[in-house]
Design goal:
The structure holds two protein chains of two kinds. Chain A is mainly alpha-helical. Chain A has 17 helices and four strands. Chain B is an alpha/beta fold. The model of chain B has no long low-confidence stretch (mean pLDDT about 85). Classes of the chains: A mainly alpha, B alpha/beta.
Chain lengths: ~375, ~290
């Protein structure tokens, strides 16, 4: 009988084109878009650096050194410009910043004159982080200019001191020896959208299950001498298989398709058995959640709405849509309650940090507990239909 | 007796749907269960098929207690519900194969039974087509075919001809008759269509306002309600013969005595719909 249960479920899945689009095409599109869109956030270089116009009444050696100093940072592209109208430059020529500097401001500092002006003009939607970075660059460049003169006067070798910043190096510490994966947007977006798409198994499960209820098929099955347990198991196994195919498919997209479009390639160095364990736990949680929603909802529209909205909320708070590290502390704490966050953190531990079973065990237990609770509630609701 | 129901009660949220219902259905009979909307027909069929629990009362199916022998009773019964209880995206064969496997049929036995069910319902041409492409009549036939998979001794048909054309309906009724005659299957047939029950069933019960208000052999019932129309030149006289033909012979004698010329005599009976409306009153039901 179980063979026919599986055969029926697989046939229904493969004949549901919309469900296949949701399960495979939607996450691929998300992975491609987000990997390419967030590429700069994880990279040392950018394709479109922020345009900075340095303006002053006269271009002199200080301004030139300032521009050189700012341009050492890959995120900015500064040049000297005679600016008459800030608005025109910002909006029509699409500059990100205009820095208005008094041409003799370095001399004024040296003379302890506090009345010098450096003004940064920017659009109202410019993030404060970017403004702060530019401020620091200007301040650092100015300090260098002043120090350089002083050190030359004192005959001190300026090379080491002024290039100090370039001497500071960052080294990533991985949990596993020999593990070296450079953090890229694709390392973040593949696990994130993979977890999201695995939870979208809810759409085909609930559609099939609610149709079974609406058409009376479930009642017909219940009138037959067959236990409900294999019926539920017959739903879990095929969708578990589909989830695993999703995992392999999305990883392959990250490894081979994203680089073709100019993104970074997904690097898999983590333990394959651990990836399998995480994908199994996520799958178990998502299928059980789907079965619960399918038992709560009365119509497919209701299931799509309840399931879709709850998935999006779980994704939003779980760090799928917005990476957790950009969230404030209270949101990061709140995200600990999203099953999607447990799945994502487990994948990141394995994919990015080279984590071991101990690093993911809590998340895996959480997902299994969540799945068991959902499954029990689904079973009770199904029984209660009598 | 195939099914014996004693003092069956069922209520939903305080509303009594079945009130001390008593009913006996003989083995091999084609039993018509009539009743207006909300009378409790589907509730009764659902209780008999373990889809909803009863509140109280006893039900014996083939001498087995419904409360104690669920598995055994399930194995000899089958239900064809009002809805198309199959998978529209599966072909007719895939549906039959799936439900057949739930009934525990395997390999050759499954294949043979599917072939039989296809033959009985004449689905040969459509066996490899997905069920959602079927007409209403074909869907009803597939619904019945699935119900026959376990060779049931008792088959419940809950309004199995709703929403289909007269040709398909006639065909389905003949299929049901054939099943009853060939396999001696007890058939419990609920319907709104009086003419269907009149054509099909040998025994009829009318369920109204939670109770069985009538249970009778069809022939007896119709005979009891037979009526003779005597057409004269300027009037038609109806003679009620439910108590025998005395009234009729007396009326003929009277007309002869009065020298009235009889144009025609029509031996007929009130149809089931008239009786049904008469018994259940004609007020509209929710």
């Amino acid at each position: 009988m179980f063979k026919y249960l599986l055969k029926k479920e697989f046939t229904l899945i493969f004949r549901d084109l919309h469900a296949l689009l949701v399960l495979f095409v939607m996450p691929v599109i998300f992975i491609l878009i987000m990997s390419l869109a967030l590429k700069n956030s994880y990279s040392n270089s950018v394709d479109t650096p922020l345009k900075v116009a340095i303006t002053s009444s006269k271009n002199n050696k200080y301004i030139k050194t300032m521009i050189e100093s700012i341009n050492e940072n890959n995120f900015f592209d500064a040049n000297f410009l005679k600016v008459k109208d800030n608005k025109e430059i910002l909006y029509k020529e699409n500059y990100d910043f205009i820095v208005d500097i008094q041409r003799n401001y370095i001399e004024r500092i040296k003379l302890n004159d506090k009345n010098f002006k450096v003004i940064i003009y920017s659009k109202p939607d410019t993030s404060l982080q970017k403004i702060e970075i530019l401020k620091k660059l200007i301040s650092s460049a100015s300090t260098k200019l002043i120090l350089e003169d002083l050190m030359l006067a004192q005959k001190i070798d300026t090379k080491n001191v002024l290039d100090f910043e370039s001497k500071i190096q960052n080294a990533y510490v991985y949990k596993k020896d020999g593990f070296e994966v450079t953090p890229t947007s694709v390392q973040q977006s593949v696990p994130a959208w993979l977890v999201f798409s695995m939870f979208f198994i809810l759409i085909p499960i609930s559609n099939t299950f609610i149709n079974e209820k609406a058409f009376g098929t479930i009642d017909r099955i219940r009138s037959i001498n067959v236990s409900l347990f294999p019926i539920l198991l017959g739903k879990i196994v095929p969708y578990y298989f589909i989830n695993q195919v999703q995992v392999v498919f999305m990883i392959l997209v990250g490894m081979y398709i994203v680089p073709i479009l100019g993104g970074d390639s997904l690097v898999i160095q983590g333990s394959i058995p651990l990836i399998f364990l995480v994908s199994s736990a996520v799958s178990f949680a998502s299928i059980s959640f789907a079965l619960l929603i399918a038992n709560i909802a009365k119509t497919t529209e209701e299931a799509t709405t309840i399931g879709g909205v709850s998935n999006i909320i779980l994704a939003a708070i779980g760090g799928i849509m917005v990476p957790k590290f950009v969230m404030p502390k209270f949101m990061q704490d709140f995200s600990e309650y999203s099953p999607m966050s447990w799945g994502l953190e487990s994948f990141l531990e394995v994919f990015v940090r080279g984590g071991s079973f101990n690093d993911i065990s809590t998340y895996v237990y959480n997902m299994i507990t969540f799945a068991i609770i959902c499954l029990l509630l689904a079973y009770i609701l199904l029984k209660k239909r009598r | 007796m195939s099914i014996v129901i004693k003092n069956l009660c069922k209520s939903y949220k305080g509303n009594l749907v079945l009130d001390n219902l008593n009913l006996e259905i003989k083995q091999g009979s084609l039993f018509g269960l009539l009743g207006p909307n909300g009378a409790g027909k589907t509730t009764l069929v659902s209780i008999l098929n373990f889809l909803i629990p009863k509140d109280s009362g006893t039900i014996l199916v083939d001498n087995m207690d419904l409360d104690k022998e669920e598995n055994k009773i399930k194995s000899i019964c089958s239900i064809v519900p009002q809805t198309y209880a199959f998978y529209p995206k599966l072909t007719a064969f895939e549906n039959l194969e799936f439900f057949g496997s739930l009934y525990g049929l395997r390999k050759e036995a499954l294949k043979k039974r599917i072939e039989y069910c296809i033959e009985v319902t004449s689905l040969e041409k459509y066996i490899n087509k997905q069920a959602h492409t079927f007409s209403g009549g074909l869907k009803r036939r597939l619904n019945i075919a699935i119900g026959l998979l376990n060779s049931p001794k008792i088959l419940y048909l809950d309004e199995p001809t709703v929403g289909i054309d007269p040709q398909s309906r006639k065909y389905i009724l003949n299929v049901i008759k054939k099943i009853n005659e060939k396999e001696n299957t007890t058939i419990i047939y609920t319907s709104h269509y009086m003419e269907e029950v009149e054509y099909l069933c040998d025994e009829i019960a009318i369920l109204d306002k939670s109770k069985i208000i009538l249970q009778e052999k069809k022939e007896k019932l119709l005979q009891k309600n037979s009526i003779i129309k005597i057409k004269l030149l300027d009037e038609i006289i109806e003679v009620d013969t439910k108590d025998g033909f005395d009234n009729f012979t007396k009326m003929i004698a009277k007309l002869e005595k009065e020298n009235k010329r009889i144009e025609n005599i029509d031996f007929g009976y009130k149809n089931l719909e008239d009786m049904f409306l008469n018994l259940t009153k004609q007020d509209l039901r929710d």
